Amino acid sequence: MTPKSFVPLIDPFDRRVRDLRISITDRCNFRCTYCMPEEGLKWLDRAEILSFEEITRLARIFVENFDFDGIRLTGGEPTVRADLPLLVEKLSGLIVPSTDKPVDLAMTTNGSALRLIAKDLKEAGLTRLNISLDSLDPQIFHQMTRRNHLDKVMDGINAAREVGFHHVKLNIVMIRGTNDHEIVDFATFGRENGMQPRFIEFMPLDADGAWTMEKVVPADEIVERINDVYPLEPILHGPEPAQRFAYKDGMGEVGVIPSVTKPFCGNCDRVRLTAEGKFMTCLFAIDDFDLRKTLRSGGSDRDLIRQIQAAVGTKWAGHSIGNVNFIRPPRSMSQIGG
C-alpha cells in the first residue's frame, strides 16, 4: 500500500518531532510530593478540559499530517477520567501514514485502578503501560504519595500482566534521603518479575517548590550501584528519554532518565498537550499555544496545522536546569502531564 501524504514536523534544531504526550486530566487520587501539593491545588473546571472528540481530532492531525507514531496518555492520573477505554478505542484506530500501522498508544498511570480497568484498556487497544512505583516500602510509599495504596498498586501491576501487558515499565522518581537506598531492591524486583525499572531524576516541577539539586540522585550513581550487584552493559540510545542498560546475565533491562544531570534535549522528539488544550513544545516550556481556542472557535484542520507548525518553530534547544538562566515553569507536573 502506498503511504499517505504527510509533512515531517521539524524543529529549529533539525530534530524530527513525532511523539505526543496528551494529558487528559489534571486530577489525581494521589498527592505525590514531587508533583502535587498535599492540598489547595485548584482543579480545572470540567468545561475547560478537552472532550474525547477534541482530543481525538487533535491526535488525528498529529498522526495523519505529521506522521506521529507514538501517543502517551498522562495526567494527573488518567484512570480517574470517566470512560477512559472509549478514548483509548478512538485513538488506537489512528494509522501512521509512513507504516500503515496503528499508532503506538501508551499510558502512564499510578496503577491503583488497574484491577478495575486493565482488561478494558487492553481490549480497547492500549499498547503499553508505565506504572509509577516510587517505593517498595509501605511507609516510604505513603510518605512520597501521601496515600496508603501500595497494595492497590501492586495488585494493579498484577492485573495488567494478567490481561496481557507483558512489558510493564516501572517509573521510579529517586529523591536523595527518601528512597535512594532502594535502588538495588528495585533492580531485583524488576529482574524477578520481568519488568523494567526506569529511575527518574527528581525534577523542579513539584508544586511545593521544595526541589533542590542536593535532592537529585544522578543517573550515573544509580547505574553504578546496580552494576556493582548486577553487571550491566549499555544499549544504544535513541530518541527515547531513558538510557537503557541490559543485565549481562540476560535477566532483562533497567533504564535511567537523567533529565537534570545529563539532559537528552538534543534527541528530543516529544511535544505535549495539556488537559485544557495548551500545546507545549517542552516539559519545561514557559510559553504555550492555545489549541482549544482554535478548536472551539471553529478553526479548520488547516488552522490547527499552521498553529502547530508555528509552535514547533519556537522549540528551544534545551531546558537549562542547573544554569543561572533556568526559569521554573509556572505549572507543576500534574498540570502539565507527566
How is this structure best described in words?
With 338 residues, the chain is of the alpha/beta class. Helix content is 30%, strand content 19%. The protein has a single domain, classed as Aldolase class I (TIM Barrel). Helix 1 links the parallel strand 3 and strand 4. It starts with 8 loop residues before the first strand and ends with a helix. The mean pLDDT is 90.
Count of spatially separate domains: 1
Q: How much is the radius of gyration in Å?
A: 19 Å
State the low-pLDDT regions, or none: none
**Fraction of residues in helix:** 25-40%
From the coordinates shown, what is the CATH architecture?
Alpha-Beta Barrel
Kindly identify the CATH topology. Answer: TIM Barrel
**Helix count from the secondary structure assignment:** 10
Mean pLDDT: 90
CATH class annotation: Alpha Beta
Structural class computed from helices and strand pairing: alpha/beta
Strand content: 15-25%
Tell me the name of the CATH homologous superfamily. Answer: Aldolase class I
Major sheet description = 12 strands, mixed
Which strand order spans the largest sheet, edge to edge or round the barrel? 11-12-13-10-9-8-7-4-3-14-15-16
Number of strands: 16
Q: Assign an overall shape.
A: globular
Pattern of helices and strands: EEEHEHEEEHEHHEHEHEEEEEEHHH
How many angstroms does the end-to-end distance come to? Answer: 36 Å
